[in-house]
Amino acid sequence: MKTILHVDMNAFFAAVEQQSNPALRGRPIAVTGSEQRSVILTASYEARAFGVKTGMTRFEAFERCRQLILVPANNRLYTHVSTEIMALLKDYTPLVEIFSIDEAFLDLSGSLRLFSGAERIAYLIKSRIKARFGISCSIGIAPNKLLAKLASEQHKPDGLTVFRSTEIPGLLENMPIQELCGIGRRLGRQLQGLGIFTCGQLGRFPLAVLRKKYGVIGDQLHAMARGIDRSPVVPEESSAPIKSVGHSRTLRDDLADRQAICAFLLQLAEMVGRRARRYQVSGRVVTLTVRYADFTTLSRQQAQADYLAGSEEIYRASVQILDSLALEQPVRLLGVRLSDLRFKTGQLPLFPLERRQYMLTEARDCVNDRYGDFTVMFGSLLEQKGKGSHVISPAWRPQGVRNVAVQ
Q1: End-to-end CA distance of the chain
Q2: Residues annotated as part of the active site
Q3: Which long-range contacts (CB under 8 A, 24 or more apart) does 285-288 make?
């Protein structure tokens, strides 16, 4: 039987801010994006005591806590601290799966004797993170990833919870189904419509009915309710090849003007193209995502005749998709994604004009790699730089294609 440990940093962004600025310690703070209309990214536990939650607007947060201090996100600091923490975790096992910027799974099955057991490893991790970064984490230990994550949620902040295999049936019997990772609000409502409110009820529900309604997901739900999860801890170097490269931005103001929308698309195309070129991949499918002011979201994709990695090519494909849409409302969010990826060869383009464009793009990338994104940019972006919200994607990772440059 495996021993899996889940590390979850407590109110990570807010905790890092309070540690770096002593004046914020012990006070209710909320970290927000860089733009006025950004939502709450995370709140300190002092703010959570007033009911301030992730995803609230600033207005909603102030309604609950008048003395709330808003702190603009310092994404470079958060990614730096996260990278250091993830490196620290690898001192205890090479099997570390980075789940998000503030979460990770560790397979300790081969490390228990080296460090005298899983609980001792947990205490070592907690004490080292506290000593080095001044922040706390909650840790769950269990026989699989599903239960380890569930355990880490039980006692926050700064908790340590162990689920032993003999205790699992009793622990899950009356636990609400929404506590399980993977059962969100919508699915939870659907299951409640079937009379399923607890994990015990879900585990005893007829499997045939779940299969008929949810297909193979029905089997997964039935297994999850009984604490069964066979998914392995997958280190970054062993993970499946990345399938897409994308960026999205919430705009400072809702836009209806095509020229203004296209300027943002060019910015996004450059960001996507730079990541694709950095990791030597190109893609054949371009997807455009548009979210209206009322949060209605559309996604349209278009297969290209050839594989793309150039910013201009990605931009032209995005505009072509945009022109196929009849925009019904002002636009709140734009996203561009490149998929159906393949690794590029090192061969230079055959024709002189294409070779010249390739070398110009390579030179621009070299300058931006050294001095920062958009140091050299398209002239039409001179007035556009930095006008989207800069929120760290849940897909961010310290290394590889998912290592998105943050601002």
Answers
A1: 43
A2: 103
A3: 285/338, 285/339, 285/340, 286/314, 286/317, 286/318, 286/321, 286/336, 286/337, 286/338, 287/244, 287/246, 287/321, 287/335, 287/336, 287/337, 287/338, 287/339, 288/318, 288/321, 288/322, 288/334, 288/335, 288/336
Residues with Cβ within 8 Å of residue 303, at least 6 apart in sequence: 284, 285, 340
Mean pLDDT score, 340-362: 73
DSSP state of 162: E
For residues 278 and 323, the answer to whether their CB atoms sit within 8 Å is no
Both tokens of 144, joined, read 């699989």
Model confidence at 247, pLDDT cuts 50, 70, 90, reads confident
| Cα distance between residue 358 and residue 305, in whole Å | 19
Per-residue pLDDT of 23-34, as tens digits, reads: 999 999 999 976
Which pLDDT does position 227 carry in this prediction?
94
pTM, to two decimals: 0.75
Domains and CATH numbers, the chain: 1-163 (3.30.70.270), 167-225 (1.10.150.20), 240-381 (3.30.1490.100)
